[in-house]
Specification:
The structure holds two protein chains of two kinds.
Chain A: H1 3-17, H2 23-32, H3 41-63, H4 71-94, H5 100-124, H6 132-148, H7 152-173, H8 179-187, H9 189-195, H10 198-219, H11 224-241, H12 251-269, H13 272-275, H14 286-311, H15 319-342, H16 349-373, H17 376-392, H18 401-433
Chain B: H1 4-34, E1 36-42, E2 48-49, E3 53-57, E4 64-65, H2 72-76, E5 85-92, E6 98-104, E7 113-118, E8 133-136, E9 141-144, H3 148-156, E10 166-172, E11 178-185, E12 188-196, E13 214-221, E14 227-230, E15 238-243, H4 256-259, E16 268-271, E17 276-282, E18 290-292, E19 295-297, E20 307-313, E21 331-333, E22 337-338
Antiparallel strand pairs in B: 1-10, 2-3, 3-9, 4-8, 5-6, 5-7, 7-8, 10-11, 12-13, 13-17, 14-16, 15-20, 18-19, 20-21, 20-22
Classes of the chains: A mainly alpha, B alpha+beta.
Chain lengths: ~425, ~350
């Protein structure tokens, strides 16, 4: 049980005892915040790490490549170890009391051994094929188990392997792997939704954005920032509608990933030289047109979902910060689309300046929202963006050392004020609580 | 505890993992046992794989398909994809070895062929001249026991030593997929030495003395049984071969003295195990000139960084060679060298 759920149960029990709520309302409240089956991150990380280390150890044992071991024995060892790990996990799963961590760990070890066995078979037969394919096959093995169990560890392993596969293909072999985004979108995102797992949703979205970027970069770098801007905007705006769905916890991962992507792209586009890339011809290749079409469709769908959520009402004062962010980002997407459709060449400051303003406004809204909601990650993200803008413009924006010094002093004072503002809000919240 | 229906799915997922491995192993094992066996000559280098002990990286002669070996339509193409499937046709080259007879993207109807993929974007030499394709066949790694890779390197021989090529035994499936079955060592070793280097070239200063190097080629018996090699007439078993990294180099002049010459029984040299036969070849002599702009010149008169090899070839089977026991039949090329006498 998570810390939040433990707190909720204690509080609800107190309210029930004090007669503030009746039993029916207690049940409704508890049902509103269902517990996910995720275990603590520490246990997940430890069991996965243990499996990874054991798997690497087995690979190194085989690395001796002792010639005296007959080929059949080597194959039997590889197949046997894999079957034994999974078999032990399945046998333990039938016994009482249940030990989910051990079962997960043994299955994770089995999937690690599956990866080791792919390389061992390659070694036995001296296979020197296109090696990234092994990572794809390995990830599919992990993904199959992630669905069958279902398992967060297996899904994370599959995500890591897909990202590695797509990354190696594009950076070492200059090949765009369009199957990678499809695999994550169709293979992992539905699992995250089905399991109501914010952690898996977060990593699936992050890897989806990364492998999409790899695939687009494998074709052409020019439209990359524009595509990511629209994709990040779609993800962030979708977070507005998330609380009305059957998976309200999706709001946080959607907002976190979307925000990171949009801020990064916004930062890039705030440079006149880089903003000029927006006007280049992006629709010449059908694959690029397809990516841009999908991103634009997702963005439109997110906008529609957010509008639906707003039309239903019931949103609080604090939600206005989120809506403000969405409005700013929608303006950014409009500028991106305008530059692309009008083939604006060069652009320079005329394009970069609006993105600079949008970025600073976004950072301000994040600080305000983070202070109001008492979420330090939002405050930190806003401050970090301010600091990055200041540092990156150190050399070319300010004419004199005095101006640079003034801006740095202003940044320092600003951060100091933000810290105080956040601390004051926190004190107030504590006073209200007591 | 997991639900029974979920247990079934888990069992299916585990079975799928095992099936993938089994299919990988079964396909290779089938080729290993039933495929057509050929030998391919290599020049190994020895890296080390942290996770898999030692492996010897193998570079085959057929990895580089020369432009004249490519199908005509392909040779003209400029915008080829990387990792394009290629089929390299093989033909016997003596001693059980096979060499590339040509390559293309269409699967040959018959004959031994090996399936590979282009390693790089198709290489274009200087001024856009096609210099062929680099093709990998999935057999470029030979995994050996930890520490054995170094021993293989030593047997192969270093730059200034006798070099004995490794010949890899490969099984080919009907579709051209190759599986390494083992390896052996060539019965014949070769050593290249520079006996005399020309004076270094200096800008705007006429070169004094010979322009081209004098080389010594040694053929050595690297087997455990007597071996016969041929050295006849005007060193007619040896040939100067251009190494084309860019535009084609001037071809060697066909030696008049070798056109009609044929080996006799006196030209057969029997080498006991470990014994060697050396010849000196002075590239200044007209016998080794190349044809530049219609004129024979020595390679030292060429501009740029022209590289050549000396290749030993057993003459076509004719009496008395046809009946000779222990005759080494094939061709073997030396390391490449340039006109300054620098050996690669």
């Amino acid at each position: 049980m998570s810390r939040q759920h433990r707190w909720l149960r204690q509080e609800v029990a107190r309210w029930r005892a004090e007669g503030l709520v009746d039993e029916a309302l207690v049940q409704r409240l508890l049902a509103r915040y269902p517990e996910t089956t995720e275990r603590g991150w520490g246990r997940i990380v430890l069991s996965a790490l243990g499996a990874v280390l054991v798997g690497l150890g087995v690979i190194l044992v085989f690395a001796y490549n002792w010639q005296a071991i007959p080929k059949a024995v080597k194959l039997a060892l590889a197949f046997g170890a894999l079957a034994a790990a999974h078999g032990a996990a399945m046998a333990r799963d039938r016994r009482q009391p249940p030990n989910r961590a051990l079962v997960e760990g043994l299955h994770a070890l089995g999937t690690m051994l599956f990866g080791a066995a792919i390389w061992l078979v390659a070694q036995i037969y001296h296979i020197d094929e296109h090696y990234p394919n092994a990572f794809l096959v390995w990830s599919l093995g992990a993904l199959a188990l992630a669905w069958a169990m279902p398992s967060l560890v297996q899904a994370l392993l599959a995500l890591f392997l897909v990202a590695f596969w797509a990354g190696v293909e594009v950076f070492q072999f200059r090949a765009a792997m369009h199957a990678a985004p499809l695999l994550v979108a169709a293979g992992v995102l539905p699992l995250a939704w089905r399991r109501r797992s914010p952690a898996l949703l977060f990593w699936a979205l992050a890897v989806l954005v990364a492998v999409t970027a790899f695939a687009v970069a494998g074709i052409d770098f020019d439209p990359l920032v524009a595509l990511l801007y629209v994709t990040g905007a779609a993800i962030l705006i979708a977070s507005i509608a998330a609380p009305e769905t059957s998976f309200p916890e999706a709001e946080r991962p959607l907002h976190a990933v979307g925000l990171f992507v949009v801020l990064a792209c916004n930062f890039v586009l705030s440079f006149p030289g880089l903003a000029g890339y927006l006007g280049r011809q992006h629709f010449a290749r059908p694959e690029l047109a397809a990516y841009l079409g999908v991103a634009a469709t997702l963005f439109a769908a997110s906008l529609a979902a957010a509008a639906w959520r707003l039309s239903r009402g019931g949103w609080g004062r604090l939600d206005a910060y989120r809506h403000g962010q969405a409005a700013l980002i929608a303006v950014g997407v409009a500028i991106v689309a305008g530059c692309m459709l009008a083939h604006v060449k060069g652009g320079g400051w005329a394009v970069a300046l609006p993105f600079k303003v949008i970025g600073l406004a976004l950072a301000t809204l994040l600080i305000l929202e983070g202070s109001a909601r008492l979420q330090p990650r939002l405050v930190g993200a806003g401050c970090l963006y301010f600091a990055l803008i200041t540092v990156s413009r150190y050399a070319d924006l300010f004419g004199s050392l005095l101006a640079r010094a003034a801006v740095f002093v202003a940044l320092g004072v600003g951060l100091f004020l933000v810290g105080n503002f956040y601390a004051r809000n926190r004190r107030r919240a504590q006073q209200v609580r007591t | 505890m997991t639900r029974p229906s979920a247990r079934l799915w888990i069992a299916l997922a585990v079975t799928a993992q095992l099936a993938v491995l089994a299919s990988m192993a079964a396909e290779r094992e089938w080729i290993f046992r039933t495929g057509q066996v050929v030998y391919l000559r290599t020049a190994p280098v020895d890296p080390r794989d942290l996770f898999r002990g030692d492996f010897v990286r193998l570079q085959y002669e057929i990895n580089h398909v020369r432009p004249e070996g490519l199908d005509p339509l392909l040779a003209a193409a400029r915008d080829r994809r990387r990792h394009e499937v290629m089929y390299t046709r093989l033909r016997p080259a003596g001693e059980g070895l096979y060499e590339a007879a040509g390559a293309g993207t269409a699967r040959p109807a018959d004959g031994p062929f090996i399936r590979g993929r282009t390693e790089d974007a198709w290489r274009l030499g200087w001024r856009g001249a096609a210099v062929g394709a680099v093709v990998k066949y999935g057999i470029e790694q030979l995994f050996v026991e930890e520490g054995a890779g170094r021993a293989i390197e030593e047997r192969r021989g270093a730059r200034d030593q006798l070099q004995v090529p490794m010949e890899v035994e490969v099984a080919l499936s009907p579709g051209g997929t190759a599986v390494i079955r083992g390896y052996r060592w060539s019965r014949l070793g070769m050593k290249l030495e520079v006996v005399r280097r020309p004076e270094p070239r200096r800008p705007n200063v006429p070169q004094v003395g010979p322009l081209s190097p004098k080389l010594r080629i040694t053929l050595a018996n690297a087997s455990d049984a007597p071996l016969v090699v041929v050295d006849f007439a005007d060193r007619c078993a040896f040939h100067l071969v251009p190494v084309d990294w860019g535009p084609p180099l001037p071809p060697p002049v066909a030696a008049e003295s070798c056109r009609t010459a044929a080996p006799t029984a006196a030209d057969l040299i029997t080498l006991a195990p470990g014994a060697a036969h050396s010849v000196e070849i002075d590239l200044v002599e007209p016998r080794w000139h190349v044809l530049k702009d219609g004129k024979p010149v020595e390679i030292g008169a060429l501009q740029g960084f022209a590289q050549y090899r000396l290749e030993y070839r057993t003459p076509e089977p004719a009496a008395p060679l046809a009946q000779t026991a222990n005759l080494w039949r094939g061709r073997m090329a030396s390391q490449s060298f340039n006109a300054s006498g620098v050996v690669d």
